[in-house]
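Many introductory courses stop at the sequence. We go one step further.
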Amino acid sequence: MGALEKRFYATGKRKTAIARVYMKKGTGVLKVNKRNFDDYFTRESLKMLIQQPLELVGQKGQFDFYINVRGGGISGQAGAIKHGISKALVEYNDEYRSVLKKAGFLTRDSRIKERKKYGQPGARKRFQYSKR
């Protein structure tokens, strides 16, 4: 082990959530906003979603992750973390790129809420038309 452990950084995004992911060799510690991973995400499905990229490349428990995430809801944040972890893994080893890309983990999910337009009650909904 060297004096300075190499760290890998990536930014993951989904909806309005942005996750800053710092990755280094370690024992599989996952900290989200300085809290334990299991405390932050209580839903089992979200925990599985976040672990997917690591399981796919067979590196589960090999890295420590320190993640800052803000914006959006719990599900959007989980998606952003998954995106960030995938990008960090590619930065660590470029050979993972094809595997992760095939699984669709490197694609930013760009579905965000459409803005409300003036003169309408919502983004697309119109007021009821009245002929007379």
